Every structure is written in structure tokens, then in C-alpha cells.
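From the pipeline queue, job 12 of 40. The input is one protein chain; the requested action is below.

Action: predict structure.
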Amino acid sequence: MMQTYQARIYVTLRPSVLDPAGTAVESGLRHLGYDNVAHVRIGKYVELTLTAASEAIAREQLDRVCDQLLANPVIENYRFELTELAEASA
């Protein structure tokens, strides 16, 4: 029986990669008087639902989706949270 899952995917730049967008936001915050903010990094957040025969298969598919499309593995890291939603009809 197929299960339905919701995935929350977080894609961030690797720590060794410069983040010009994060630097710009940090500068803007300091300009606005938020001197207590530091180390701003900008990333991506993606939500999707998928059906799979098991959680293990869903995780394997999500790894491929992230590696092939959502993240650039050369400069980005990703992680995801997977939640079972409900049983789908066969």
C-alpha cells in the first residue's frame, strides 16, 4: 500500500562558499541598527508531497531529487524532514 509523505527540504550554501546575499542582508540589518546580528546565510526552503511504498523509498527519492535538481552538490548542502501524512488508496 502506498503512503503519502510531506517533505520539508532545506538547501544552504556550504560553509566554505561565500554568500553575497547573506552579506548584503547582514549589512542592511546593521544599517538599520541591528548591530547584534552576525553570520547571515541565505538558503532555500521547499515543501512537497510524494507517495511511496515505504519511508525508505521516499527518502531515497528525496535524496535523488535534491541531488539532481534542488541543490548544487558542489556548493550547497541539503537536509530534509519527512512526515507521513495519510494512507493513499491503492
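Job complete. The longest strand covers residues 76-87.
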